[in-house]
Description:
Layout: H1 16-20, H2 30-40, H3 42-48, E1 53-60, E2 70-78, E3 85-92, H4 106-123, E4 134-138, E5 147-152, H5 169-188, H6 204-208, H7 210-220, H8 230-238
Antiparallel strand pairs: 1-2, 2-3, 3-5, 4-5
Protein name: CHK domain-containing protein
Organism: Rhabditophanes sp. KR3021
Amino acid sequence: MVNLSAEESGGDFLEKELGGQCFPKTNTEHSWAIQCLQNNCEEFRNLRQNSKIVNATTKDIGVGKAFVSNVLKVTISFQNNTETFVCILKVTNANISTRSKDLPYGHLAVSLHNREVYFINKLSDIKGLHVPPCYGSKECIPLKQDGVILMQYLGNSHGQVEYFNSLTMEQAQSVVDQIFLLQSHFLVSPNADLKPIVEAKDIAFIFNEFETNFDLVKQYAPEEMWKETEDEIYSLVSHASEI
């Protein structure tokens, strides 16, 4: 008996239509993700063997976590294997750059996504840098193409620290170590093609919130932590755009 590959036996999917279907709220087809996994993920190939894809279900795990992108947990089922393969599809919608009252800084989200794609493709091999394996990516082209990153699912071994929770000493040290690696890399690689993508006007809203929040900090923090530098702090913030 000869075992044919999925391609030889009529394509990747048990039902051909499934390949042309898009993931929810995206213009990214199932077939694109499967081809990326087949080319770049050994674990996927080992699970799949010669099986066809039976289904690809998704769960939006980014809701309520302050993600600008849609973060989809994708579970892929195979014809001849009861085990499933799980990965993450992170999508920045092609229409997000349209300025609106609901999302006035959508164009910035596009720039940030495309910088992330550049980083993954060009810099993720820096020794010691903790970057989840990426199996495929697409830049976001406003009004034409969703920005997509297909990456390893880490939910079974890692977790998210909510922005309102403090880091442990171990977590803080890990963050500092990673920043050190990046800084060291760019100190010895001054020609790296990383032009600024954030203009002062794009983050003006942050400084507009500063005074209220700084007043709150002063209510709880000892004076010796801020009193001597208070004038300098306000001066820096008031000139943030020029800086």
